[in-house]
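User: I'm new to structure prediction. If I give you an amino acid sequence, what do you actually give back? Let's try with this one:
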Amino acid sequence: MSQIPPLNQKRILAFVNHFLVSTCAFLNEFALGCETKFVEMERQLQKTEASLILLEAKLASIPVDPYEEPQSPETRTQPTETRHEDEDDSDAPPSPSPSPPAGIRACEDLRYRKFFKMLQVGVPGPAIKLKMRSEGLEPQILE
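Assistant: Good question. You get back a string of structure tokens that encode the predicted 3D arrangement of the chain. For your 143 residues, that looks like this:
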């Protein structure tokens, strides 16, 4: 049986040293790139938050007049039609008609008013729904 000569220790040490140095250099560059991207994302997030704060301040400065909102023609004509039916059929029992929900409309509610204004101004719907969830409100009401 022939013997294999031993490996040169200096050569092995040089290979391992080169591997460690190149791996450390790669990891340092990778970490620097990741940190740079995180800093850029943080700046973008801060800009978005500042824009949102400005938009909320603008919306809060808009005076809200409940008489200013236009009503649909159907809403205006329903009460008059109901009165005519009641006057004509005074002997007959009143017919079941779809009654409007008790209370106020969602767009007139103080909690939801600013979200409807955001929608009117042109803020994307998903962003408004996200903001509503963060404030603990039901986002389906916008629809």
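You can read the tokens as a compact description of the fold. Here is one thing that stands out. The two ends are 86 Å apart (CA to CA).
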